[in-house]
Amino acid sequence: MTKRIFTIWGRSGVGKTTTLKLIAKEIQRSFFHAKSNMELDPLPHGDIVTVITITLPERSVKIGITSKGDPNTDLRVRLEELASTDCDIIFCATRTSGTTVEDVEEIEKKYGFRAIWVTTYQNGHTEEQSALNQQSAEELVRLMRFTCNL
Questions:
Q1: Residue 41 pLDDT > 80, yes or no?
Q2: Architecture of domain 4-147 in this structure
Q3: Are 79 and 60 in contact (CB under 8 A)?
Q4: Model-level pTM?
Q5: Alpha-carbon distance 61 to 59, whole Å?
């Protein structure tokens, strides 16, 4: 399996953190034998770092998720930790340019990941953002299943 890093990039306040938490929850819902190192129901407040292990008939897959993607928040350290603990798939947040993007590119090269750069659904209407975040999470889990043959 090709190792993947799904990078949700965007400016501040567009739903990246919420979408990443929803992705973790959706993975647990979608895979019967998924086990996480943290409780995701209800969704925790603030940023998360979690590893979910999916046990499939032919193999196990480790998925790391880190939601803190602002500059100067040690994203590279968290990505290094997830990559060096044998995560096959990583989901993370970054800004649109700068050090957080460079952090992902460095992990991609160092550990042999292939990055897929995506963004959340957004429309600028706060009352609709929750539904858009949920839809983004579901779509990204489908993308993960497709690109990683799960």
A1: no
A2: 3-Layer(aba) Sandwich (3.40)
A3: no
A4: 0.94
A5: 7
